């Protein structure tokens, strides 16, 4: 896709009113030029959320969150950077310009991508028409409705029907001007027989991307032999491991509730949406992947997993939990049976207790939401999926099902089963609490379980060291302490118009603090690429602590008063201290030479070195005088 030009991005940043934008989310009050409000990221009674309208920065002194206004929009509304730019451009009347990418090949790829999206949209519409409006699609529609899926859901998800004639789609599209070469690369047809449709006599489920564009299809077999479900093969617009079924329909509720439901199949997700659980999605013919988890992590904190109660479903649930935790998501397992034991099923008073028990047993044993919807209706389904257990509770219960915990060997295996989960936790406090819960559940000494876990970790580290591989070690972020170099670089960062004269007077070799060097390098990169503003600078700073330092100081007014003088004075102080350090070192070296001249046979060499150091000392003293006299 074409990129938004840098000049357009800068125009959006220049024109946007930071207070107006932030005011849509936070009630701000002007306090001597600083706008304060209650932080939207944590609960507080006293305002600690500060906005700097000039630098277009925000920072919360309570929870530490901070960044540019663009970052804020992206986090609050779960947008990508281009989406945030486009939204703000519409609001502030900026006509965006796009660049093709700089070469013909990029333009060609972008055009092909657009053409593929257009093709899939047309095909989805045609399949939907065949299902909803034609006699040949009636059996597929009848099957869908017989599963308890309403016609409203058929329309909402644009379900369709692929005809049994495998050449129908090719003929249909060829008549509408699509070339055989283009269709061969569309993933809609057999590679071996390019006129044969990939889907034949199947109920079709359009698979949309986050923007609601159809990128692929899933198809359920209605008759004959073959796989029950098929998915479009991967293409330029579809990567199954990075996409979730119904993600476009589920996103509004996921953002609102901060949680998502993951079911196993298309029908299950549609059934959940029909029951009002509209934050439900599903993987696409594969296990729940890290990429899919990271996609959800942008919008949610918790995932509720709905899997079959058979061994395959239980295994998938365990993998799903680990995938969630590994990617920063909390996880729960939905337990329909637990809800069913309550008042989920409301039978008529005329029905006897035996019928009630039979109905209860039936819903407890049902495998998926689609079956519960069909048998008992949407209210029962909605109540059932509200019943969840925490992932650790589930894993402990599962370990006790797999192993005989009445014997020591079984206790050891059950504990080891849960250790993989513990390794995904990024908090020592949470991990220690989980270890205690595991030990209590297995009725063993807590210290014994902790020792077994630590031994396992030690062995894993040893194996990685032996093979030369590394583990993910999360750095402990220590807040930066103010020093003269950091102060100077922060002043330049928030007043980047001063950078050109700054870099002419001070080189990066004269900076010693690593975080200050990091900021210096980022400023130089922005200068070389002719980019200005903190939206361009902050992503280039590799140190998270340095970024936080800039943002936290930037929302204050300490760098806005006479920044030219601050920079000039800062450069002088750094140069002066550097020269003074070198001068002190020379004095030390001269004293050593004086003490060694009578002992060393090579007195002439020492005398020459003495002269060199004295000359350098005179030169340094002259530089110091100039600095102190403001004649630099």
Q: What ranges have pLDDT less than 50 throughout 5 or more consecutive residues?
A: 339-350, 467-477
CATH third-tier fold name of the largest domain = DNAb Helicase, Chain A
Superfamily at the CATH H level of the largest domain?
A: DNAb Helicase, Chain A
Global shape: globular
What is the number of beta strands? 16
Secondary structure class reads alpha+beta
Largest sheet features: 5 strands, antiparallel
Cα separation of the termini: 51 Å
Polypeptide structure, described:
By secondary structure, the protein is an alpha+beta fold. It folds into five domains: 3-99, Zinc finger, CHC2-typedomain (DNA Primase, Chain A, Alpha-Beta Complex), CATH 3.90.580.10; 106-238, Alpha-Beta Complex (DNA primase DNAg catalytic core, N-terminal domain); 250-390, Dna Topoisomerase Vi A Subunit, Chain: A, domain 2; 403-467, no CATH class; 484-626, DNAb Helicase, Chain A (Orthogonal Bundle). Helices cover 54% and strands 10% of the residues. It is built from 28 helices and 16 strands. It has a five-stranded antiparallel β-sheet with strand order 2-3-4-5-6. Strands 13-12-14-15-16 form a five-stranded mixed β-sheet. A four-stranded antiparallel β-sheet has the order 8-9-10-11. Helix 16 (369-376) packs antiparallel against helix 17 (378-385) and helix 20 (428-442) crosses helix 21 (446-467). The protein is globular and about 100 Å long.
């Amino acid at each position: 896709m074409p990129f938004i030009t840098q000049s357009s991005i800068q125009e959006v940043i220049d024109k946007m009113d930071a207070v107006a934008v932030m005011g849509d989310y936070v009630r701000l009050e002007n306090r001597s030029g600083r706008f304060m409000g209650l932080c939207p990221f944590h609960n507080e009674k006293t305002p600690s959320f500060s906005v700097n309208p000039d630098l277009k920065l925000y920072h919360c002194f309570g929870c530490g969150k901070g960044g540019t206004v663009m970052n804020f929009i992206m986090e609050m509304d779960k947008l990508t950077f281009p989406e945030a730019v486009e939204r703000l451009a519409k609001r502030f009347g900026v006509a965006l310009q796009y660049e093709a990418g700089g070469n013909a090949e990029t333009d060609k790829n972008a055009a092909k991508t657009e053409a593929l999206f257009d093709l899939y949209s047309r095909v989805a519409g045609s399949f939907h028409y065949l299902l909803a409006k034609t006699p040949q699609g009636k059996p597929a529609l009848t099957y869908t409705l017989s599963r308890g899926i309403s016609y409203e859901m058929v329309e909402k998800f644009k379900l369709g029907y692929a005809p049994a004639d495998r050449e129908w789609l090719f003929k249909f599209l060829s008549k509408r001007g699509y070339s055989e070469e283009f269709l061969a690369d569309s993933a809609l047809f057999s590679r071996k027989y390019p006129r044969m449709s990939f889907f034949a006599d199947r109920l079709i489920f359009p698979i949309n991307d986050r923007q609601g564009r159809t990128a692929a299809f899933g198809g359920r077999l209605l008759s004959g032999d073959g796989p029950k479900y098929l998915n479009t093969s991967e293409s330029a617009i579809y990567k199954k491991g990075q996409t979730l079924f119904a993600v476009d329909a589920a996103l509004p509720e996921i953002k609102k509730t901060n949680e998502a439901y993951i079911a196993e199949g298309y029908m299950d997700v549609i059934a959940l949406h029909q029951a009002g659980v509209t934050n439900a999605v599903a993987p696409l013919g594969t296990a729940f992947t890290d990429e899919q988890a990271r996609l959800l992590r942008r919008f949610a904190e918790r995932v509720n997993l709905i899997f079959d109660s058979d061994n395959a479903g239980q295994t998938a649930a365990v993998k799903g939990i680990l995938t969630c935790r590994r990617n920063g998501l909390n996880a729960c397992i939905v337990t329909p049976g637990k809800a069913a034991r309550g008042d989920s099923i409301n039978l008529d008073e005329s029905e006897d207790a035996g019928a009630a028990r039979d109905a209860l047993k039936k819903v407890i044993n049902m495998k998926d939401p689609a079956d519960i919807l069909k048998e008992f209706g949407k209210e029962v389904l909605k109540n059932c999926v509200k019943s969840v257990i925490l992932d650790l509770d589930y894993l402990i219960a599962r370990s006790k099902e797999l192993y005989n915990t009445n014997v020591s060997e079984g206790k050891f295996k059950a504990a080891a089963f849960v250790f993989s989960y513990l390794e995904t936790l990024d908090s020592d406090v949470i991990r220690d609490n989980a270890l205690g819960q595991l030990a209590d559940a297995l009725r063993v000494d807590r210290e014994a379980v902790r020792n077994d876990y630590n031994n396992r970790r030690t062995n894993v580290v040893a194996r990685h060291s032996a093979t030369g591989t590394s583990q993910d070690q999360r750095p402990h972020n220590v807040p930066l302490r103010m020093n003269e170099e950091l102060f100077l670089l922060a002043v330049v960062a928030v007043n980047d118009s001063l950078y050109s004269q700054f870099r002419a007077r001070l080189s990066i070799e004269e900076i010693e603090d690593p975080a200050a060097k990091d900021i210096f390098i980022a400023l130089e990169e922005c200068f070389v690429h002719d980019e200005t503003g903190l939206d361009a600078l902050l992503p280039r700073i590799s140190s998270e602590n340095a970024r936080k330092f800039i943002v936290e100081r930037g929302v204050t007014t300490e760098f806005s008063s006479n920044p030219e003088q601050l920079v000039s004075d800062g450069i002088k102080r750094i140069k002066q201290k550097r020269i003074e350090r070198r001068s002190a070192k020379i004095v030390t070296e001269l004293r050593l030479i004086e003490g060694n001249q009578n002992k060393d046979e090579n007195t002439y060499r020492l005398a020459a070195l003495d002269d060199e150091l004295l000359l350098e000392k005179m030169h340094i003293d002259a530089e110091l005088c100039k600095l102190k006299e403001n004649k630099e």
